[in-house]
Every structure is written in structure tokens, then in C-alpha cells.
Amino acid sequence: MAQTRATSLKDVASAAGVSVATVSRLLNGTLELPAETKARIDKAIRDLNYIPNPHARRLSRGRSDTIGLVVPDIANPFFGMLVAAVEEEADRRGLAVSLFATLNRPGRELSYLRLLARNHVDGLVFITNHPDTQELAELINATGKVVVVDEDVQGAAVPKLFCDNFQGGQLAGEHLADHGHRRVLYVGGPQQMISTERRFAGFESALSAGFGDDLSLMRYCGDYTVDFGRAAARRFLDEGRPASAVFVSSDEIAIGFIEVLCAEGVRIPDDVSMIGFDDVGPLHLFAPPLTAIRQPVRAIGQRALSMLLETNWEDASSLAREELIPVELVVRSSVAPPMSA
Amino acid sequence: MAQTRATSLKDVASAAGVSVATVSRLLNGTLELPAETKARIDKAIRDLNYIPNPHARRLSRGRSDTIGLVVPDIANPFFGMLVAAVEEEADRRGLAVSLFATLNRPGRELSYLRLLARNHVDGLVFITNHPDTQELAELINATGKVVVVDEDVQGAAVPKLFCDNFQGGQLAGEHLADHGHRRVLYVGGPQQMISTERRFAGFESALSAGFGDDLSLMRYCGDYTVDFGRAAARRFLDEGRPASAVFVSSDEIAIGFIEVLCAEGVRIPDDVSMIGFDDVGPLHLFAPPLTAIRQPVRAIGQRALSMLLETNWEDASSLAREELIPVELVVRSSVAPPMSA
Fold first, then answer.
1. Suppose B31 and one of A45, A171, B25, B68 were both cysteines; which one would form an S-S bond, judging by CB atoms 3.0 to 4.6 Å apart?
2. Residue A174 pLDDT more than 60?
3. Does any CB of chain A come closer than 8 Å to the CB of residue B84?
4. Where are the coiled-coil regions (chains A, B) (predicted)?
């Protein structure tokens, strides 16, 4: 490809016939200028396509005005929406986002982390969707200026941002308990991931609070995919529908699960109640509209970027911390009292 | 971030105690080696994390092993799935993908194109989702090694890859004509875009073939967004439902349109028949399951990458060409004969 050089403050200053300090202070908002001079500088900025960028400067002395974003499964609308939220926040702050989709493959994650390290980004938002590997944590710690989002990478001593998975499980459990479900099934992602552990813990705690020992709580673990949703539904049917209500812990799992139930003529909520998690897809148009825990995807994306920009990376003691964003219950029509009630 | 150097063929050769030519020819498949030597080289490749990459080498002498991908609206699952398909194909070929989401904003598109030019990618797959600007075409032509996908950028003299929009419109028109709909509405994207023009042209041609002059064909144009779908549905209702069938030309538009119809108690297909385009979302779970033209999203993504790698960029006369991938009709339950029939 043809090489072009980034427009610098100096180019703008020279085109406008003023000093670099004048342009810089105008952009900082620390200088008032005659309208005519300001117009000349504005025109030079436009003509040269210069993108002023105070935030990136704060991040890095060797500024690139670009942050990196590594996501697992970009075909999953949850991650698509999360990426869009980071991108919008970056746009608002005048930053570019260099995005890498790993297909949730550990080898590709490691390659991209190394590539980003070589490419001098000013910082990195990292999202994985599989149980963590020691190698990944080590590489993240070596890379520096990384915020881990959505799922944990254990051993990575960096700021972390998750939705409040425990609270989400609790809300789902309370909703099912309120409808009298004491034989329930949890269909979650990989067993070792915090989304699975915490959602299940919250779910169990709410149901136990409702029913004590008079509770049958089963759990199927797999991947956050449509395929696993289908497999889980088949197992549920093969086992003779051992629960009156199911908590499917992602939109993708829900899609596969409902697909199989529909095909087998099992009615929601008449035969089985169902509650989902994510609420990114058009669940409100489903037959029936699906009740779900909604993840604050936009808020997570925005906050991820602001954590990256606001962390004091010189202060090692402040790095390893965790922040949670609350979720909410969206009630639609997929939960009803159990048939036997 | 910490700097790391990419592992070279030379590093591998030196670790394995063989010549660079030996490693190179082994990777090319042009050399048979004793098992023990081959094992030593394989081990060095693994230990050093060297990623051999014949395809990237073909593309560029100054190989970066990375291609660029620019997409408009990453929150739209259509683009998410397209990106995943490019990424998978790149993974299969040992290439990295540097991804940029423009939010469909022309300024951000231009910035990313410039950034990619500076960053030495080996080639670029470019997708926009708004009517084209002259500036964009000029920048694409100056950048070189670009394949334009999904929507046209007029004036860009590069290989282009689209789904067969005309055929898709035709299939939709035939399906509605078969059910006796002669008062129909087309709800499409921006007027000047080829997806809109071609789908409408195909739609009109099929309906005209069916009904000649005894046809009422209306058209609303807007954006490929849920919001526009909602607005179009409100207009449709305000105008007293002037059609017995509606062709909504994207999943996003369909979601907004159906949402409003449902809220107003308009039944599909009893009151209004509906056919969609894209079929990326879980339309099969909608109430009712939506009949739609399915875009071959994975095939488009894979082919986009192979066009980029297989084009002879030295031969200027072969660059400006257009390739179409056929679409298909997926029949579900949202089209029925009109009520008056």
C-alpha cells in the first residue's frame, strides 16, 4: 500500500501560519484567538485532516492515538454490540480502535497480543471467552496497559470489568421462585468461567432462599453457542424434562434450546418456563417473547475504554482491581407457574 | 507496551541447525527431509511460535502477514458474521486480520483507510454502508490492493463482490406474486445504494411479470436500521396499510417493522404478509417464523479474502470487475394469500 505520513500539529501550524504552541493551546481550550486566526487554523485542520487527540496523549508518550480491542466471537451479536460501544466511545474521544477477532482460539489470542505489542497501541481492551490459560495471563502482564473485560483471565494483574453475574443469577432465581419453580435447570457456559460460576451461585442462592432443601437444581455446562443450546435441549428432552423451568445463560444458548423445543412441540411457558441472559438479540419478537436478564452492553463497552484511559499505570498497586456493572430483569412472557401447580 | 520482534525464518533455521533455504523449502512442500531433521525444524517452529505464511508472501514483498478489514456497523449481526467468515478464512491461510469498525461514518472511514495505508497491511477488504463519496473512491484507488464488498463505492477501480441483489429481489417478488399479492410495499435502505436499486429492480421485474399493469408497488427508503424499520411501519399504518404484503430488505429493518406491527395488533401473515432479506438473525424463532431471502454471508466473507489474495494487482486492466454470489429463498410462515383473495 502507498505510504502516507500522519499530519502533525506542526503541519497544521505551518499551514495556518501560526506557532505550534498557538495551535496546541487553541485545541486545549487554554487560548482565546481572534475569529480570523481561529478560522485559519480550523481550515488547516480540515484541509490536512488533522485529528487532535488529548486523551491518547495522556495514555502514552509514544502516542499512536489507537487502542487495541481483542474479542473472541465476533459473529455473536453480544460481542458485536460491545465492540460498537467501545468504538463509539473511542470516536467521541478522538481515538482509533484496532480490532482483532480471535475466534476464541487460544493460539490466535496469543498471536494477536504479540502483534499488538509490536504495533505500539496505546492500550488494550481484552476479551476472551474460554477458560484461561497461564500463558495468556503472563502475556497480558508482560504487555501492560490491558483491561480485561467480560470474562476473567486469572493471574492477570490488571483492571477487570464484568457485569454483575451473581446479581443476574439471583434475579433469574428470584423470578422463577416467585412463580413457584422448585425443579429447575441451569444451562451455562464452560464450568470454570466466572460467568458460569457466579451466575449459578446467584441463581442457587435465590432459589435456596425461596425453597430451602425442597429444591431440585440441575446444571448443564457447555459453550456459549447455538450448537450447545441445541445439545442441551436434546439432553433435557432425553432425560424426560427433569425441570419445570430452565435458565439459559446466553442468547446463543437460548436460540438453540428454543429451536429444539419448538421442533419437538414443547410449549413455552405452558410446558416449560424459560429465562435467558444477555438480551442482545430480538428476544421480544420470539414466540413467546423471552424473559431475560439484560446485560448493560453499551455501558460495559464505554466503561472498558474509560478504565483503560483513566488507570494510573505507573501505580502497580492500583492495577489489580475488579469493577462490576449491574444487570436488570426484563419480564416478557416465557415464565409461568409450573403445570403441576 | 513492551516491544517484541517477530520470529523469522532465520531464527527457526538457526534453532534447528539447518539453513534458511531448508526450512523454506520444507514449508513450501518442495523438499523431503529425514524424519529426524523434520522433527527438529517442527520443534523449533513450535518453540519460537513461528507462523509460516506462504499466502501473505505472495501478496506483498514487504509482507506483514496481515490484511485489513473495514466494516461499517459491527453491532449489526450481518457484519459480525461477515467479519467472522473473513477471519476464519484468514486463520485457515495463516494470516492475521486487522479490523476497523467505522460506525458507518465517512470521516472515520477515511481516517482508517489512511491508518491502514501507514500500517503496511498486505491488502484490504472494504465495506461501507452509506451512499458513496468521491473522496472515498479516490482514497481507495490511491491505496491499492482493496476489494470492495457488499455495497458499491462508485469510481473505485478495484475488484468488487456483492450478493446477487437483483436475483434476491426477484425471488421475493415471485414468492409474493405466487401468493397473489399485487399491492405490495418495498422497504429498503438508502435510495442510491446498489442493494436498494438492484433488489427493487428484481422485485419489480418479478411482480410486473406476474401482474403487468395491475400492480401497485410502493417504496419507502431509509437506513438499514431497526429505527428505520419502526418508522416505516408507523408510516405504513398511518397510510392505512396500503399493501397486503411487505418486502423488508434487511433483518434490522424487519425487527423494527415487526415490533411496531405486533404492538399495534396487526397479525402476520393474516393481516399483512412479510418477506425479509439477510436471514442472519434468528428469524425462525419469530412469531411467526419469517420467510426471507438468505444472504450467503460465510461465502461472501471467504470469497472476499480469496479475491484479495488471488487478484493480480500488477495488471491494472483486470482490477475493475464485479462478482456476484447467488442468494436463496427460505420459506417459513410469514407469507399467505391476501385477505381479500
1. B25
2. yes
3. yes
4. none
Q: What are phi and psi of B14, to 5 degrees?
A: -70, -40
To the nearest whole angstrom, how far is the Cα of A80 from the nearest Cα of chain B?
5
CA of A29, closest CA in chain B: separation in Å? 23
Span B145-159, average pLDDT: 94
Domain A165-296 has CATH 2.60.40.350: no
Q: How do residues B296-338 score in pLDDT, each as one tens digit?
A: 999 999 999 999 999 999 888 888 899 999 999 999 999 999 9
The mean pLDDT of A55-67, rounded to a whole number, is: 54
Q: How far is it, in rounded angstroms, from Cα A276 to Cα A293? A: 6
The ipTM is: 0.80
> What superfamily does domain B165-295 belong to in CATH?
Response regulator (3.40.50.2300)
Pairing of strands B328-330, B291-294: antiparallel
pLDDT of residue B33: 75
Give the single-character DSSP code of A316.
Answer: G
**Is B285 in Cβ contact with A259 (below 8 Å)?**
yes
Q: How far is Cα A24 from Cα B241, in angstroms, rounded to an integer?
A: 57
pLDDT class of A45 with cuts at 50, 70, 90: confident
Radius of gyration of chain B, Cα coordinates, nearest whole angstrom: 24
What's the average model confidence in pLDDT over B154-162? 95
What is the number of CB-based contacts under 8 A between chain A and chain B? 155
Residue A143 has pLDDT above 50, yes or no: yes
Cβ of A88 within 8 Å of Cβ of B103? The answer is yes
More confident residue, A119 or B269: B269
The percentage of residues in chain A with a pLDDT greater than 90, rounded to a whole number, is 67
Asked if the C-beta of A100 comes within 8 angstroms of chain B's C-beta atoms, the answer is yes
Phi, psi of B320 (to 5 degrees): -75, 90
Q: Is the CB of residue B159 less than 8 Å away from at least one CB of chain A?
A: no
Distances (CA, A) of B74 to A4, A82, A85, A232: 27, 9, 10, 29
Domain ranges for chain A: 9-52, 66-163+297-325, 165-296
List, as ranges, residues 174-193 from B with C-beta within 8 Å of A: none
CB A83 to CB B91 under 8 A? no
Q: Give the closest of B3, B120, B285 to A287, CB-based.
A: B285
B281-290 confidence digits (pLDDT tens): 999 999 999 9
Residue B79 has pLDDT above 90, yes or no: yes
Q: Which residues of chain A make contact with B87, given a CB cutoff of 8 A?
A: 74, 101, 103
Peptide bond into A52 cis (omega under 30): no
Cα–Cα dist B209/A58, whole Å: 64
Which CATH number is correct for B66-163+297-325, 3.40.50.2300, 3.40.50.1950, 3.40.50.150, 3.40.640.10?
3.40.50.2300
The Cα B150–Cα B127 span in angstroms is 6
**Interchain CB distance below 8 Å, B103 and A120:** no
CB-based contact B292:B249 (threshold 8 Å): no
pLDDT band with cut points at 50, 70 and 90 for residue B63: low
At A221-278, the pLDDT tens digits run 999 999 999 999 999 999 999 999 999 999 999 999 999 999 999 999 999 999 999 9
What are the grid coordinates assigned to A130, written together? 474460554
Please indicate whether the domains covering B66-163+297-325 and B165-295 agree at the CATH topology level: yes
B87 lies within 8 A of chain A by CB = yes
Q: Quote the cell numbers at residue B330.
A: 427460505
